[in-house]
């Protein structure tokens, strides 16, 4: 009840912040970042999304919050570009309410125009389960986003409802290989074979694969051997504040 009260009060305040976790290329350079929301709850401290995103969704606050996230990311991309750091792609995590909102593409395009965001620079991550309530609407929304230059990723790929029939219909650029596949990849040849198969499938469908939850260099090496395109995880960096992410971009990698 207090959580609900505080969350409602936090809407429109400056209590939310985005942290950024890098996505690395095979050559060790930074391909972009994933934006992850945090809530600086007064008197409590930094709260991770798992503790308030489901409640925000339940209370119907997530469309508004999600829109704030997208605007914040557009502003960050523009800031990095004007700081001379180049055009850095950033992904946001979508919610079910956004994927069932026909208005999503239009306000995304409006924000992209307002902040001068080029095609290919704003990315969106969604899970297969988010599409389940209204798959036709979700697929239509994804096609509009993709047509407007938004890069799309299936998050936690392999854990949800992964129908091969859907996969073919989805205008998706990246599969994000779920952490659970990465965990034992360096020790279990069956897991390595499975990952290699997923990479081959993705590449056949003109998709790229990013591995999440990479924590050890053995996992990194095994994934590279499977032809994985991008890597994300604590091995490279935890999610960082915007200013730390800016420092990270300035360092050679
Ligand atoms: O940041 P962390 O790694 O603790 O993220 C936990 C979960 O919260 C992940 O599933 C992530 O996708 C989700 N999440 C993080 N930021 C956002 C956001 O801005 N919007 C939504 N809908 N989910 C988010
Ligand atoms: O569901 P999603 O993939 O968006 O989740 C992102 C979450 O994963 C964030 O909470 C982030 O902090 C966490 N995360 C990112 N890298 C790693 C990692 O290497 N290991 C573990 N255990 N969690 C990670
Ligand atoms: Na994600
Ligand atoms: Mn994920």
UniProtKB/TrEMBL annotation:
Ranges for domain EAL: 1-253
Protein origin, superkingdom: Bacteria
Protein name from the UniProt record: Bifunctional diguanylate cyclase/phosphodiesterase
């Amino acid at each position: 009840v207090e959580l609900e009260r505080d969350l409602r009060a936090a809407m429109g305040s400056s209590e939310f912040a985005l942290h950024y976790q890098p996505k690395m290329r095979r050559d060790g350079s930074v391909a972009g970042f994933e934006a992850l929301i945090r809530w600086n709850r007064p008197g409590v401290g930094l709260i991770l999304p798992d503790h308030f995103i489901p409640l925000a969704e339940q209370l119907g606050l997530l469309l508004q919050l999600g829109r704030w996230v997208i605007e914040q990311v557009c502003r960050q991309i523009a800031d990095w570009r004007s700081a001379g750091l180049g055009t850095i792609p950033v992904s946001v995590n979508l919610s079910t309410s956004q994927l069932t909102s026909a208005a999503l593409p239009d306000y995304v395009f409006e924000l992209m125009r307002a902040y001068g965001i080029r095609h290919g620079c704003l990315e969106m991550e969604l899970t297969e389960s988010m599409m389940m309530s209204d798959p036709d609407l979700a697929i239509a929304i994804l096609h509009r986003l993709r047509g407007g230059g938004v890069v799309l990723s299936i998050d936690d790929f392999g854990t949800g409802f992964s129908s091969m029939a859907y996969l073919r219909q989805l205008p998706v650029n990246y599969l994000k290989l779920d952490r659970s596949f990465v965990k034992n990849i360096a020790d279990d040849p069956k897991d390595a074979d499975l990952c290699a198969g997923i990479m081959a499938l993705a590449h056949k469908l003109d998709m790229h694969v990013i591995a999440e939850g990479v924590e050890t260099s053995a996992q990194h090496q095994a994934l590279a051997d499977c032809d994985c395109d991008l890597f994300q995880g604590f091995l490279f960096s935890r999610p960082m504040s915007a200013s730390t992410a800016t420092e990270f971009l300035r360092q050679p990698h």
